[in-house]
Design a protein that fits this description.
The complex is a heterodimer. Chain A is α+β, with helices and mostly antiparallel strands. In chain A, a hairpin with a 7-residue loop joins strand 2 and strand 3. The model of chain A has no long low-confidence stretch (mean pLDDT 89). Chain B has 21 helices and 17 strands. Chain B is globular, with a radius of gyration of 27 Å. Classes of the chains: A alpha+beta, B alpha/beta.
Chain lengths: 91, 573
């Protein structure tokens, strides 16, 4: 299992387009990917669900925690980390 | 409704004036029955087909939106497609159908509502507004499940003002935009879909006007004023003619004025007057330049502090200020330090609930009591001073002690930066003149600061002791009243004796009636909403200083705001 904590630096947080990009990226992997908003101490939700990710209410500078489990967990962790750290710039 | 000339107030959502017949979009409320089923697998089998069809529809809408309105509108439908493929939504539906043996329509509706309500419970307005998207998608699928015709195929009879409870992207994408004159909705706020769409199309919109408009008969004539946020129902001939005239004039004028807005505002006798913008975010800085702003006369910094759980750090603020300064290049930027009080809820500040937040512990009063918190903002500001024309302004100052304390904190912030080896450049210090005590002692304050900026919205409400958000007191909210104009005159006179310059950043600065008077009173800087700049510059160009001075002197002798406005309008310019 991979666990990682990331800070969302994007100005609008995990809104609209960034949220969609995040969910689409998570959806490419077979691994089970759970995410929660550390800053608001939310529950874990499915990172492949746009509705669930939006309900986390992730705003700029919030920290999110990811928990990834499955065969391709290392690749998934790397891809999501890059996406967030590059501020959703296309790879 | 048969009230001739009834004026309904709403929220201005997109500027412009439209006149035309109402077209009411009524949506049939779907009746969802909830019942027990036996074969859960067969029930769920119906879902795939509906989802597939919905995805096909949405893709077609996305293409149409992209072509007709642009990528922003198209992105909404991309999000809709993502919602349809949402595993958590499908899982919730499955659990209800399989676990409780409930029919698919009811299960779908409950699941969609579950997520929509969760979104509505979030703090940020953006997330709350997205609940409408979830319901929009939900309804599309329900209609397919119930074999109801898909919504949105409203064929407009001709040019009309679209009236609805609220409009979703699915409602608007199929409207023939070339026939829409404007939008009027019973519900919705300034960030609702209707507002965003109307701005993108350059059409006027008034939202949140209340249910009364839904009771209008089709084809009722309406005047929609997207600036005032008003709808006139069934106008009489005089109102109609007046509206028509305003519409034509507004269109011609705004085209000409916008063309000329990039030129400086020089009076007929050759005095250049500084016209700058009031902005409240980084995005607006670029917009301000488009409208011809020569700088920023008021940067409200509240946006950095709202909708968050922890205070913004020095570094975060520094980055935002830097971004704005870079857009403005060498132009002056007046930054107002944090102006919040008990009317706002900031979880990290514990401002408390007050009976009168506008007379309460707010703005500089609160910041001086929280020196560490305040100095974070001051350090971030001082750090952007090198290479830029920074002017720091304190809001809601009432006494000289407050100015001295604020200056003391600035010195401390500067010393802290020095100790870290951070460079600090030149900057100016100023205060808002919005509490009458400052207008009275303006000579004393003028010796303490580089500039004043008169906040006429608050100065007016404090002078008349009238809450400016109270509709019943609207007659006590006119800043053109000589009681306000005389204070402005005193402030300018006192300031100029001390070589202190004076700006004005209330709505009065962009008020066409007030511009020539303020010019005559000797105001140095006019700061206003970006969209008001082209008009104000055009007005300034029509006056010479002696003419304006004569007008102002006469205005000061009048006894009401109305009389002042009549005087200016009678001048025929």
């Amino acid at each position: 299992m991979q666990k990682l904590t990331l800070t969302v630096i994007n100005e609008v947080g995990l809104h609209a387009r960034p949220a969609a990009l995040f969910v689409e990226a998570a959806g490419k992997y077979a691994a089970d990917i759970q995410v929660r908003n550390l800053t608001s101490d939310s529950d874990w939700v499915d990172a492949k669900s746009i509705l669930s990710v939006l309900t986390l209410g992730v705003e700029q500078d919030h920290q999110i925690e990811l928990s990834i489990e499955g065969d391709d967990e290392a690749q998934a962790a790397e891809a999501l980390r890059k996406l967030i750290e590059a501020n959703f710039a296309p790879a | 409704m048969t009230h001739k000339n009834l004026i309904i107030k709403g929220i201005p959502a997109s500027p412009g004036i439209a006149l035309g017949p109402a077209f009411i979009i009524e949506k049939e409320e779907l009746q969802i029955e909830r019942y027990q089923i036996e074969d859960a697998a067969a029930e769920l089998g119906r879902l795939d087909g509906a989802l597939q069809t919905a995805l096909t529809q949405i893709e077609a809408l996305r293409v149409k939106a992209e072509q007709e309105t642009g990528p922003e509108e198209a992105a909404i439908f991309e999000a809709h497609a993502l919602i349809l493929r949402d595993p958590a939504l499908i899982k919730a539906v499955r659990e209800i159908v399989e676990g409780q043996a409930i029919n698919l329509e009811a299960a779908w509706q409950e699941s969609v509502e579950h997520f929509a309500q969760q979104m509505e419970a979030l703090e940020d307005e953006y997330f709350r507004a997205r609940a409408a998207d979830v319901r929009d998608v939900g309804e599309r699928v329900l209609r397919l499940l119930l074999n109801k015709t898909t919504e949105g195929a409203h064929s407009l009879p001709g040019p009309c003002i679209v009236v609805a409870k609220d409009l979703t992207p699915s409602d608007t994408v199929n409207l023939d935009k070339t026939l829409v004159l404007g939008f009027c909705t019973a519900e919705g706020g300034p960030t609702s879909h209707t507002a965003i769409l109307a701005k993108a199309l350059g059409l006027p919109a008034v939202v949140g006007v209340g249910k009364r408009v839904l009771a209008l008969t089709e084809d009722t004539m309406l005047i929609l004023d997207g600036e005032a946020g008003e709808v006139t129902v069934d106008p009489d001939q005089a109102s109609y003619d007046a509206g028509m005239k305003r519409q034509t004039q507004a269109a011609e004028r705004s085209a000409q004025e916008k063309d000329a807005a990039q030129q400086p505002a020089v009076t007929r006798d050759g005095h250049p007057i500084e016209v700058v913008a009031n902005i409240g975010s980084a995005d607006e800085a670029a917009l301000a330049l488009e409208y011809g702003a020569e700088g920023v006369g008021l940067l409200r910094t509240e946006f950095l502090y709202l909708d968050r759980k922890v205070a913004p750090s020095e570094e975060q603020q520094f980055q935002v200020y830097t971004a704005i300064m870079e857009v403005m290049e060498e132009r002056p930027v007046v930054v107002r330090t944090l102006d919040v009080g008990g009317d706002k809820e900031l979880p990290y500040l514990d401002l408390g609930v007050e009976a009168n937040p506008f007379l309460g512990w707010r703005a500089i009063r609160m910041c001086l009591d929280r020196p560490d918190f305040f100095k974070t903002q001051l350090r971030a500001l001082l750090r952007v001073s090198p290479g830029h024309d920074l002017r720091i302004m304190f809001p809601m100052v009432a006494t000289l002690e407050e100015v001295q304390q604020a200056k003391q904190l600035i010195s401390e912030a500067q010393a802290e930066l020095d100790a870290q080896g951070q460079e600090v450049g030149d900057y100016q210090l100023g205060i808002m003149v919005e509490v009458p005590s400052v207008a009275v002692l303006a000579d004393q304050f003028a010796r303490q600061v580089n500039f004043f900026s008169i906040g006429t919205n608050d100065l007016t409400q404090y002078t008349f002791a009238a809450d400016r958000t109270n509709e019943k007191l609207a007659h006590l909210a006119d800043a053109c009243h000589p009681a306000i104009l005389r204070q402005i005159e005193r402030v300018i006179q006192a300031a100029h004796k001390e070589d202190t310059w004076v700006g004005l950043c209330g709505e009065l600065a962009g008020d066409p009636d007030a511009v020539p008077i303020l010019l005559g009173l000797g105001l140095d800087e006019f700061s206003m909403a970006p969209a008001s700049i082209p008009r104000a510059k055009a007005i300034i160009r029509g006056w010479s200083l002696p003419e304006a001075q004569k007008l102002a002197a006469e205005a000061l002798t009048l006894d009401s705001g109305r009389a002042v406005r009549e005087l200016v309008r009678a001048s025929g310019k």
